Amino acid sequence: MTPGRPVPPPLALQIPLAEDAGTASPLEGRLAAARGAVSSTGGLVPLTVARRAPKADDVEIAIEFCGLCHSDVHATRGEWGTQNYPLVPGHEIVGRVSRVGSDVDDFAPGDLVGVGCIVDSCRECESCREGLEQYCERGMTGTYGAKDARNGDSITQGGYASSVVVDRRYVLRVPENLDPAAVAPLLCAGITTFSPLSHFGVEEGDVVGVVGLGGLGHMAVKLAKAMGAEVRVFTTSESKVSAALELGADAVILSRDEDAMAAANRSIDLIIDTVAAPHDLNPFFRTLHRDGALFQLGLPSDAMPPVNPGALIRRRIAYAGSLIGGIAETQEMLDFCAEHGVVSDVEIVGADQLNDAYDRMVAGDVKYRFVLDTTTLQAPAERADA
Ligand code: NAP
Ligand code: ZN
Ligand code: ZN
Fold it and tell me: How far apart are alpha carbons 40 and 21 in whole angstroms?
């Protein structure tokens, strides 16, 4: 355990293990202090989570920081449909290893590690074998709100918590030269933007457009710049123009300004669209060169305006989506960030500020990622809620 950090007390009552959760663990499960939602309308409240006893391949992590992703807002507020409540969100986790299972030899107590959006997958399908666990054909197990088939179909609970237990295959090594709080958002916002940039093969001389300057968007700017691209930011917020330039953008276009959009006609190779709300994509297609591509990363709860096929056909434009990134690619991204000194711009918040932070995120009032400092979570109650 990291000295000076609150450590969940050993469990007073043994947490019953699900039947197929493994039997021979010599380690006990522990309770974690957490914040999560118990309904779609009640905001985030203090909760206690039962973490499983680390099995042979498990790594237990004392969480230090967890980023707040807009997906956490969509999920806890029920914007993506019915959820399993209580629900502890958080998939941008950074912390130190506290205990490891008997077969873990690649991580040791004290190691600085991370966990992103994936905590399990089938490990057998073509996507898993290719290191693309996010596209697991049987469905990946998300870090929160997902049925955990290898652990008795319990529901996974995320990183707004003092600890978590994750199979070693889904744990990332965090470079020690980077600020751990500012690394946390790399585990979702970083990899989600790195993956399509890398898939498209962005290199020096390419022009990359980034739509929406929030958590994902600001990482797209930093990563595309580090790959050598020229970057143009499209924003709806006049207040972000100078901040975008400070981040390294070469140009900023106000996307509601029709003249500015017309002036950007045929100027961009690849667009990374990170907007969290429905919006018309057709004006953005017009800013692409022939053979350009637009990757949509945002997942709004309401339907998007229709795409005009003519806009795609006339320039052989590809309209694509992309889901986070695989485990090996996430490690590659972390190592790339360590080499290029790339981290997120963060505002650290305490547990009592989470609900306000969600409202501010929805209002676009964050530069650019909130990160929870888990030392502000209160001690876990004696019985688990989740
Ligand atoms: P965020 O920090 O809230 O940023 C979203 C940005 O979208 C805002 O800063 C804003 O930028 C722009 N925007 C324009 N109109 C908006 C509106 N009406 N409401 C909200 N935002 C608006 O969100 P994020 O964490 O970057 O996530 C962005 C989206 O990606 C979310 O839908 C999230 O669920 C999704 N996501 C997808 C993946 C994936 O794997 N594909 C992974 C993580 C997150 P401007 O002010 O510059 O216009
Ligand atoms: Zn996320
Ligand atoms: Zn699979």
Answer: 29
